[in-house]
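Q: What would this chain look like folded?
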Amino acid sequence: MRYTQYKGVVEREYKKSLRKIMHEICAVEQLDAVEGALRLGVAKSIFEYWRNFYRYDDQQRLFDQKVQELDQPHYLYVNERKKPTAPSELKHSEELSLQGFQEQLEKMTAYYRAVQKESGGLAVEAANLQLFEFAEELLQRYQSGELHKEVMEKSLEENEKGK
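A: My prediction, written as structure tokens:
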């Protein structure tokens, strides 16, 4: 029998198109070539041919998904249109204090989180998120006293090494 004859037999048995059958077996149930061939009652080579023809192999599906994402460049620039023109009111805008720094840091971190979420991490600005999260963590460590303890421990170690 030829591929088209096998295809006709399988489609008549399942009462669906071969593309739908292969999608169910490969994408939904995620069966490998041996199990899929047994399920359909065809040779493994025929099943592999159909899987490659309909691009349901794991590597092919992943590649097609990434190509589809890259073909939509408007996602790269989604944040360019939505940038806020004026920042929301700051409570500590007129003072240069730790509270003002903390407030501005929180607002910028929230902004970069939104940028990363909207762009899926593809926007160039999204790279700043880690820097601002790290700065927030350092500020929290400073306020809790952990940073001071660490500085004191490190300075004691340096003094002992110098003796």
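The chain is about 70% helix and 0% strand.
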